[in-house]
Structures are given as C-alpha cells and as structure tokens.
C-alpha cells in the first residue's frame, strides 16, 4: 500500500512523457522526466547509502548531540540520474524536427519547411548547445567526485570549473558569438556616446569562464548545515524558472529568440528540480545523507549551463547576490587577512540544541588597520567581536581577541540570535528567495529604465 503513491506518480510521468503530440511539449515531457528523476533518486539514495559508508565515504554530523555517522558524497546519485534523464530527453526535444509529413510508404516526397513550420519544439541547431552543456556537466561531476575522494585543495580546484565549461564556451563562440554589452542610457547622455554597446571581445569569454567558476564554488562555500546546499539550489532553480516563465507565457514572444532560449532553460531546470527535491528530502534536518562537493559543483554548473547557453548570464548573477555577498564578506579570511579556521561552521550547543556564531580566535594582535575595519563592521551590525581594553600611557586601546567567522551563515546568527539548525537553514533560504524575487522584478523594470529596452516588450521604453 505504501508503494501505491509512487506507482501512481510513475504512471503520471510516463503519460506526460509519452504524449508527444501535446501542445505543451517539450515542457510537458520535462515535467514527466522530473517526476521520473525524483522517483529514481528517491529509490536509489537509501539503497546505495550503506555502501558509501562501507567504502569509507562518510562523515560525522557535528551539529547533533550523538554525532551520528552519515554517508557522504550522495550527491553523485541525483547527478548521475539527471545525466541519464537528459540523455533520454534528447529525442523528445529534437526528434519532431526530424519527422516530416509524407505520403507514406517510407517516401519522404513532401516535407515541412522547418523555417516556417509552426511548432513548439526546439530547432535542430540547438542540439549542439544542449550536448555541450551535458558534456560540461559530466566533466564537472567527475571533478567533484575526485574532490570528494581526494580532498583537493582550494587553490588547485578553484579554476577546474573553467576547464569543464570549455565545451559551452566553444559552442557559444560558434553558434552565437555575441560579445558586446549595452551602455546604460544615462552614461551615454553624460559622456555623449553615440554607440549603444561596447564589444568586449575575448574579455567577454573570460567573464563567462568566471561565471562558470563562480557558480559551483559559491554554492560550495555557502554550506555546512543540513539542507543548505540542496536548498539554495532548489531556490535558485525556482527563481530561474520564474524568469523563464516571463518569456514563455506572453503569446507575443513565442516567435522570438528569447522564447526559444528560455524554453530550453526550462527543460533543463525542471528535471534538475525533480532530482534535487529528492535529495533535499534526505538532506533536510536531521540529515540522513551528506551531499558532498559533487552536488555543489554539479548544481552550480547546471546554472552556468542555462545562463551561458541561454545568453542571460548577467541576469543569472542577480539571483546569486547572496552567494556574491557571502564570497565578498569571506574575503578577509579567504585571503589570509584574518585567521581562517579549517571549518567555519556555526557552533553547536548541546545543552539547548541551538546554533551560535562560531568565532576565529587570534593568538596575536591584529594590525591596527584591520582592527579598525572590524570595529566598523561591528558598528554596522555585520560582525560579532570579543574585545579587550588595555590602558597604556594614559591611553585606552581596544584589542580584538576574537570575532565571528566571515560567512553569511554566521552573520544570520549575529542578526537574529541563536537558532535550531533547520530554522537557520529556512531563514537563509527565505532570504535567498526574497532577494531573488526583488532582483527578478528589478531586472524587468529598472533594466528598461537604464537601457531603454528589455526583452519583455511590455517594459520597452525606447518607443
């Protein structure tokens, strides 16, 4: 009886996938594959988890009283399921453009003109972009798995996503090749520019490589509590889908290139959402599995894939504002200006089962300039410090003995006080979604004010 809901979901997924002539294709099939991916991951994760422990891939959950042993690197399961699903999805995305109306009997005497055919399926020239993205994802999953197995140092693995993104960048160069950016209207007015854009040339490919590096690493940095790595990936996928729907719903946009690129983005993100929700079920507090670096790199590359191939990498970064803030906020410790412990996780108090900001303790006095900077951050509510006043020569000096670690997780605890782990994760995810929603509205309103144009025609001000 317990299996009946899953059997029902499996039947629904098969119906959605196999109804190939639905006007909602290929989005309908992507939903079917998302349900199938959820069911496969939901079955495989608990089945394979004991084998991960058996081969030594496990860790202790330090934020629990009994410090349970939990299988690690489980993120490889939904990642592999996703790859197989996306391989299986290829015919449903592209096959209709290989089928033409004929007189039958194997004759191909009459065919549909693909340039004028009214169809909601992808054009065949998108296949190269799709396959290059899958190749980049395969490379990233492999690199993430190697990191989980051999614990590669940050300075060695930081640039690895750029290597995995090479297929994406090559196809972008061949298929699209646009390297210019628009100049805001107020800058043109101030400096008297007549040009509407600036061509960055090779610098633009450097920027896209930086996006491919940042997305996986930023998710990997903002981690350490149950559900956060997968949770932020789910929130980011939902935000990107909301952005896609802005282009898919208006009928006036269905013949535009923007419609095609966001349709492809939707078909990539929906199955990803399916496998991620399954993993979140096991990784949410109290976690039964750890996702490992593999999932962080995999999910980040999925977002880089849709941003680069969909030609909206700048919009993508708007949804990554919390991750960008976390990276900038972490710079003092990442670059050695302030002592950085190996783990900057929040401190768990076994007495009340609550999380508190963890601190970096300084064995020797910090440079005065850094101390002044910390005091400014404390005054702004961006840091928690432990300081000591020392009187010397009729002067009182303030010496900082320790401070909260420079992560967004610890900062949320500084702002809102101690929390249980699941509530802390929920607050961070709510913050991510709220900022993303504001960014989405700003993208399609303020952008039109700055540039006089937005891809959504209802916001265009150029006329």
Query: How are the strands of the largest sheet arranged?
Result: 7-9-8
Structural class determined from secondary elements? mainly alpha
State mean pLDDT (0 to 100 scale).
Answer: 88
Would you list the SSEs in sequence order as H and E? HHEEHHHHHEHEHHHHHHEEEHEEHHH
List its salient traits:
18 helices; single chain; 463 residues; three-stranded antiparallel sheet; 9 strands; two-stranded antiparallel ribbon; mainly alpha
Question: Could you explain how this protein is built, in words?
Answer:
- With 463 residues, the chain is mainly α.
- 58% of the residues lie in helices and 8% in strands.
- The protein has helices spanning 4-18, 27-54, 76-94, 127-150, 154-157, 160-164, 166-175, 185-191, 202-221, 228-248, 257-283, 292-309, 313-319, 321-334, 368-379, 408-416, 421-443, 446-451, and strands spanning 58-60, 69-71, 180-182, 197-199, 347-349, 354-356, 359-361, 385-392, 395-404.
- Strands 7-9-8 form a three-stranded antiparallel sheet. A two-stranded antiparallel sheet has the order 1-2. It has a two-stranded antiparallel sheet with strand order 3-4.
- A hairpin with an 8-residue loop joins β1 (58-60) and β2.
- α2 (27-54) packs parallel to α11.
- The longest helix is centred in the first third of the chain and has 28 residues, at 27-54.
- It is globular.
- 38% of the residues are buried.
How would you summarize this macromolecular structure in one to three sentences?
With 463 residues, this protein is mainly α.
